[in-house]
Amino acid sequence: DGRSKTVGGKAGMNFLSAKLQLEGPVMDKTQWLINARKLIFNKTLTRFFDRDTPVDFYDGFVKITNQSDEDSRFGLQGFFSGDDLKNNNPANPDYSWRTYAIGTIASGLIEERLLVHLVAYQNFFEGKRISKDPSNVSPSSTRVKETGVKTEATYYMDNQDLFFFGFEFSFPSFEYKLRNTYGIDRRLADALAETWIWARYQTNVGFWKVDGGLHMDVGSMFVRGFDLSLLQPRLNMSVVLMSDWKIKASYGRFTQNIITVNNEDDVISIFDAWIPVPNELDVEKADHYVGGIEGNILPTLSASLQAYYKHFGSIVTYNRDKTDALDPDYINSKGDAYGAEVLLRYGVPLVDIYTAYTLGQTRINARGFQYPPRYDRRHTLHLMTVFHPMKSLDLTLRWEFGSGFPFTQTMGYYDRLVLDNVFDGEFVDETGDPYTRLGEKNAARLPVYHKLDFSVVYRFSVVGLRGTLGGHIINVYDRKNLFYFDRSTGRQINMLSFFPSVTLNLEY
Fold first, then answer.
1. Alpha carbons 486 and 492: distance in angstroms, whole number
2. SS3 207
3. Are the C-beta atoms of 64 and 76 separated by less than 8 Å?
4. What is the pLDDT of residues 276-308, one digit of tens each?
5. In the beta sheet, which residues pair with residue 108?
6. Do residues 220 and 230 touch, judged by C-beta distance below 8 A?
7. How far, in Å, CA of 433 to CA of 426, rounded?
8. Termini Cα distance of the chain
């Protein structure tokens, strides 16, 4: 919320970017906070790697909060960000992403036991693929703008139970511009009126703490008609055992009215467009089941184990059987995702060690055709060790590993005859256009991802300033992790390779 007594600030800089935060009081019981970050040394990567690295980014956050008395609170906040990827090669497109969000927050006790929290907001997102050679890559853009209001209320019962209820109205609008395979520019625009209401009750049943309720997607019921599957039950249960061990279980049904579209034949997608689910299809629905246990094995060793299963009763996919212009572009499919996560933490004064491992699998069933989606990652492992050789000095090692994502292999190429002019065409000399022959959908896996990062941070205080001085190395052993691959040209771009940096942060 910002400092309430004095003006303060934080500033930081490294080999790439700089960030600044200022905060303080405006008047009695009112505080402000401003935070901003910007890439300023955009030539650093280019000079270090001796090749073009055309990236740029910025973001900022502003917040004003007023605590008028003990029972009420009011605030304004805003966020904005931008990211750019500009290629010097005229054959490669540029990319641009912009986001902003503004909101008003008010909360307070309107009765002795009724706490109300109100949010009014507007957000905006735009992504562009800017083509410098339309014959190679077509231009495209996606835009989402949403205005809404959300109210949550909590009622405190005599027996210390809690009753939650609320609603949300939002009005998202969408615009998707593209150039189709015939070279014709298309503009797809649509809007939604989403309405959500919910109620939950939290109580104790024996040793169990139970939180259960019902959410309703009222907006979809008006558009698609009443469907029991649009009722979204939620249930969370937990119990504390001896020695501080806790068992948790939860179930929830969730729906979604918005999807992303992209070229599924891309090995790795950079640009995704947002559209609402077509009215003739069911909204996307998923049932989540989660169970877990956590606690201390030793005073210095804690563990958490969770298992999950997610059933997609409805998920929107491309219609792979489309053969006619009248056939639908999208169909409702089904899917399943399941897995387990393990987290271990060991801590003593000299060292902290964190280990997190996830095993997961996801399958899509599109009218009998089954395949793993592009983000189905089987194994994920994170290891982090933080040494504290001195009170003011930390040394951190972090290793990440992820098995490969699925992709569809290129099996070969052939020249497809165009036959543009049936009457005057010279078919004998026509060579056609090169066409890619693909293999079984997502049957292969991309290379595994892994890298090691190292940092050392020293904390100090001088002349009333607190600060940290740090040295960092990203990708210590220079692993070539795949970022992007162009199937048509074979061009490959890797993620950030070995890169050292120094960071200085000051706070007053």
1. 7
2. coil
3. yes
4. 998 889 899 999 999 999 999 999 999 999 999
5. 72, 116
6. yes
7. 15
8. 17
